[in-house]
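Sample pair:
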Amino acid sequence: MSLFHRNKIGRASIKESFDNLPCGICFIDKNGLIVLCNKQMYRLCHTLLGRDLQYISELQDAMNRPQNGVKTVSADTDVFHFPSGEVWKFTKSDITDADGNAYTQIQAFDVTVLYETEKELKRENARLKEINARAKKLYTELDNIVREEENFAVKTRVHDEMGELLGLTRNLMAQEHVSLAELKSVAKRWGQVSSTLGASSEGEEEAFDVDKTLTELTKVIAAIGVTLHIKGEFPQKSSAANLLIAAIRECAVNTVRHAEGSEMTVELTRTDVALTAVITNNGNIPEGEIQEGGGLSSLRRKTENAGGIMRVESAPVFKLEMILPGKEGLCHISKLARTRVQNVEDVLTLGQVVPVKLMEIDRQNRLNLSYIDAIDPKASR
């Protein structure tokens, strides 16, 4: 016997090796009959079917409706969880042998470790998400606590300062002769309190009792010798009310400090799209252009951040005008001119008040506006 024959692999050796494969594998002919199947696949199919596998149709039915404690891991994959705790993935492919005969090959792979690793990763991700959510909540609560403590400290200091100033102001008003230096000193301190209040409330949109706040503010202004007149309906919306109260407070201080006035008037006009407030006083006319200090600058910034416009005039009388949006609308850049516009600044300037025409109200109740159709109706034709 030659060396080749002595080492030739027989059918029994091939079958033994086939049976010892860690994966399950079987081959089915064109008639659906099992022609070759290893022990692993027989074991798995016996669990799925409750008996030995003979036809591919039996395996397909068992995979579509698993029984005997076998569960599908997911509806769109052929991955099954067996009662033993094992997880197997089944695949199917068509092959052809050397003689041209067609067969269907079904394989099963043990993916238990991969499945358990994936489950652990999902649990870890869920745990990390929960930790992240809790940390985010704690950071938010901590930020709120710090902000509340800071606001409380500011409000306490302002409360004490205003109490002291009210007493000092009453004493000055009771005296027959008060020096100009004393009046300017008190007015300066009122201005500092006003700036502090404006800074501490900037950006806050908390609801508050508008009427009560306005009544208290009127009393404070009266205590420094200024009578407040309000014409029109004062807004109840906290954002607009906050801005107007800040404006009244700032103008009252300036009425005493710079204009030496005794009366201040706030005229309010409301339309469907805006609220306009005009504040004037009976004091001395400012000399030259008004230089905006910290109080007016802060007020302008808050007004513009709210989408409004603020104007300050010194002649013929001091006038502060605020225009606050009542309803927002959108004017697209294509609606600024009949020609192509590259930049909005090529047509309009920042803070410019322009007429617009309402073109439509969309499904989200937004106003679509046009500037060119308002100034030149021919453009819409």
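The longest helix spans residues 112-174.
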